Task: inverse folding
């Protein structure tokens, strides 16, 4: 994939927006379990009381709380509250909210920062627990013990030995039984009180802030009830408030997910479009040597199937691979915040998941590479069978082709089934891990809840975070399944894009200029195909002059088509040089060179469209008169005029709806529309009958009087009147001259001519 990174550059802004949205989506999803924990812990268990810092406290109750605070803590707490007396002007605005204000003064909490509220929360929480313990002892003398932490032994002797019990029935001297215990403690010497407060702090340290909050919540609720506050409404308000936040976060996450999906689809589609265009452009630059390296079937697979794989993975990559690490790392951090003692459960889950991912990756990668090669093979067999269907039927080879297709199809099917089975087997393992983790968390977490080391809501949130972590790894696993195939596809695309054509324009190309002379000169030209051991052309030298027809004839495989393919630089000469208008063809740009040539290939090729659109391929700006003239010269007018829609008749793919001779004539007409100074006809008259051939050559001669014309042919009758005939045999030039000269001087030409023509025709 790294080879194609430059094609993602135009979409970096969209990618940045998508990643930002993923962070928003991850943040909101990670926040939901935390809020769910608040609903359970605060909303249900604590009755909507979030902490130990109430919005209002009766003066009498605050005096009791202050007994269990150090002087510094007392000063800090009282600085955050304002005393409102019953008859004061300020009392009116609070009376409806706190009806108890009519009977006694109350402390109203000032507008303090969250940090300050967090700072005084443990101070007041411990004080609430101490006061609550004493009040419990007053209502039940058998439990006249305070500062016994939840889960700790309440045995009196044990508690007394540990110094954690204050027995209110052992009164200091000077005070009578029945004295208010808070007054009793307040009357203690300063040193004794300090020790008592220190003991309180020490005993509650092990509980942690959340457990202190939960334990103090009931005391705070009791204080609210004493103030005349509707605690049921307080709880409902808290639940609705948190629920509204969760709903907002859920909608935000959904919106971010939808927008991210839209952006990722845009990026993936744009990337696929750009890659297809880049591959097509590069393939257009390929010469015959490059097409020998990449089969047509392989290039089609790479342009369609491989790019589709990249498009699909890119869309999923953005929404999963960027999102999964964010949610995974965030989930780990938040889960440990909820319960650091259960970190080993996360480590166990991550370890198992990593083992599965690595195993799947190592097994899947080779299979994906094999699958793409088999797809190439399947396309090749299908293409050969469809293009050669007439030959297959003619030789009754349908069973053979069915067997050949079946073998390739079976190999591809077996490979795909193996990969699908791998994914199917992996999913139950993931579900098993998921359920196993849930059971393990509940088992371990329930023990910690029983020991008051963990709140129920925190255990539930921890479970949710672990599920998010597992799903993050599940997403990564899915990507690890898909990435190998996309990586293989990306490598195949990069292979095409990084293949530099052998035929290149020079860095500083020359120009033919305005005084162009269509002369073609071969100077000691030899040619060898890439990778071949021997030359196919040996030291060829001749000149094709303007206004003349130069014909090339020879035995099969003698190199006739190779010679004319060197002129437009479909190949470059291995030795020697070719000059047009006095310039080496390698020193000018390919575009300018080919702009001077009207080329008719050996195999006629027409494109989907109308007759006229095919002819305008030679010159899209050609006038109607030029097109009409080309149709007449190529002897195409008679059959074109009889077509259902004439020039507007649709030509099917490859010209399948017209005959071979008609395709050949339209190919010649297309070249004539170009009105080029050089014409190359590579065995372009083979499908024409002798009469049409003669008429076409006669009309062509009049049209190309000032042009250089090269004709490759097997017919002696076609070139009998050519000004120059080049005779080839096994890549060597064995004869050059006119028909009459070669009949006398060249044995090869004479043998070809006598095999085709009668004595009268030879004369």
Result:
């Amino acid at each position: 994939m790294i080879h194609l990174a430059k094609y993602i550059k135009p979409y970096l802004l969209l990618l940045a927006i998508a990643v930002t949205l993923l962070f928003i989506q991850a943040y909101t999803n990670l926040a939901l379990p935390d809020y769910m924990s608040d609903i359970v812990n605060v909303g249900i268990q604590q009755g909507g009381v979030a902490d130990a810092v109430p919005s209002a406290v009766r003066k009498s109750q605050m005096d009791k709380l202050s007994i269990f605070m150090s002087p510094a803590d007392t000063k800090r707490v009282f600085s955050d509250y304002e005393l409102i007396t019953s008859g004061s002007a300020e009392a009116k605005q609070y009376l409806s909210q706190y009806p108890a204000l009519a009977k006694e003064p109350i402390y109203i909490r000032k507008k303090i920062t969250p940090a300050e509220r967090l700072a005084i929360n443990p101070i007041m929480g411990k004080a609430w627990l101490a006061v609550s313990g004493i009040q419990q002892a007053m209502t039940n003398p058998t439990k006249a013990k305070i500062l016994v932490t939840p889960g700790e032994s309440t045995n009196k002797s044990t508690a007394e030995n540990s110094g954690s019990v204050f027995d209110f029935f052992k009164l200091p001297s000077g005070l009578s039984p029945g004295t208010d215990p808070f007054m009793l403690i307040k009357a203690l010497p300063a040193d004794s009180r300090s020790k008592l407060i220190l003991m309180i702090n020490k005993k509650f340290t092990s509980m942690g802030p959340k457990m202190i909050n939960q334990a103090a919540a009931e005391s705070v609720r009791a204080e609210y009830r004493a103030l005349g506050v509707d605690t049921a409404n307080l709880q409902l308000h808290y639940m609705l408030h948190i629920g509204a936040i969760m709903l907002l976060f859920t909608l935000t996450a959904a919106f971010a997910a939808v927008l991210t999906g839209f952006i990722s689809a845009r990026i993936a589609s744009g990337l696929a479009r750009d890659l297809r265009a880049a591959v097509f452009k590069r393939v257009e630059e390929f010469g015959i040597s490059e097409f020998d390296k990449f089969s047509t079937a392989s290039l089609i697979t790479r342009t369609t199937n491989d790019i589709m794989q990249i498009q699909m993975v890119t869309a999923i990559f953005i929404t999963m691979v960027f999102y999964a690490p964010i949610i995974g790392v965030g989930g780990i951090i938040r889960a440990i915040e909820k319960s650091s003692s259960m970190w080993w459960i996360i480590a166990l889950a991550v370890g198992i998941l990593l083992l599965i991912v690595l195993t799947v990756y190592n097994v899947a990668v080779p299979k994906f590479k094999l699958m793409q090669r088999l797809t190439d093979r399947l396309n090749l067999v299908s293409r050969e069978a469809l293009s050669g269907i007439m030959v297959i039927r003619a030789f009754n080879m349908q069973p053979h082709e069915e067997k050949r297709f079946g073998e390739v199809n079976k190999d591809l099917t077996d490979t795909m089934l193996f990969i699908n089975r791998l994914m199917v087997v992996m999913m139950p393992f993931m579900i098993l891990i998921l359920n196993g983790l849930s059971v393990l968390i509940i088992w371990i977490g329930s023990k910690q809840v029983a020991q008051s080391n963990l709140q129920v809501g925190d255990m539930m949130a921890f479970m949710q975070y672990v599920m998010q972590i597992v799903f993050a790894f599940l997403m990564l696993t899915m990507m690890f399944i898909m990435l190998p195939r996309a990586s293989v596809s990306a490598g195949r695309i990069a292979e095409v894009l990084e293949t530099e054509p052998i035929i290149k324009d020079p860095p500083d190309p020359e120009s033919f200029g305005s005084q162009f002379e269509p002369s073609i000169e071969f100077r000691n030209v030899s040619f060898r195909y890439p990778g071949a051991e021997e030359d196919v052309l040996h030291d060829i030298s001749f000149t094709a002059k303007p206004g003349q027809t130069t014909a090339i004839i020879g035995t099969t495989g003698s190199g006739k088509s190779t010679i004319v393919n060197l002129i437009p630089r479909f190949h470059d000469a291995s030795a020697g040089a070719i000059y047009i208008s006095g310039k080496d063809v390698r020193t000018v740009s390919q575009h300018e060179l080919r702009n001077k040539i009207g080329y008719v290939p050996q195999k006629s090729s027409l494109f989907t469209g109308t007759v006229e659109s095919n002819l305008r391929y030679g010159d899209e700006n050609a006038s109607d008169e030029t097109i009409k003239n080309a149709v007449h010269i190529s002897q195409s007018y008679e059959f074109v005029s009889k077509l259902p829609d004439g020039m507007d008749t649709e030509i099917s793919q490859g010209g399948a709806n017209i005959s071979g001779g008609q395709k050949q004539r339209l190919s010649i007409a297309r070249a004539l529309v170009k009105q080029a100074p050089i014409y190359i006809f590579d065995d372009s008259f083979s499908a024409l009958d002798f009469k049409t051939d003669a008429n076409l050559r006669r009309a062509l001669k009049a049209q190309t009087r000032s042009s250089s014309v090269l004709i490759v042919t097997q017919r002696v009758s076609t070139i009998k009147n050519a000004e120059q005939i080049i005779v080839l045999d096994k890549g060597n030039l064995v004869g050059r001259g006119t028909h009459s000269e070669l009949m006398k001087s060249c044995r090869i030409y004479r043998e070809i001519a006598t095999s085709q023509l009668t004595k009268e025709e030879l004369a």
Remarks:
- The chain has three domains: 36-240, 278-497, 514-596+708-763.
- The first helix runs from residue 12 to 45.
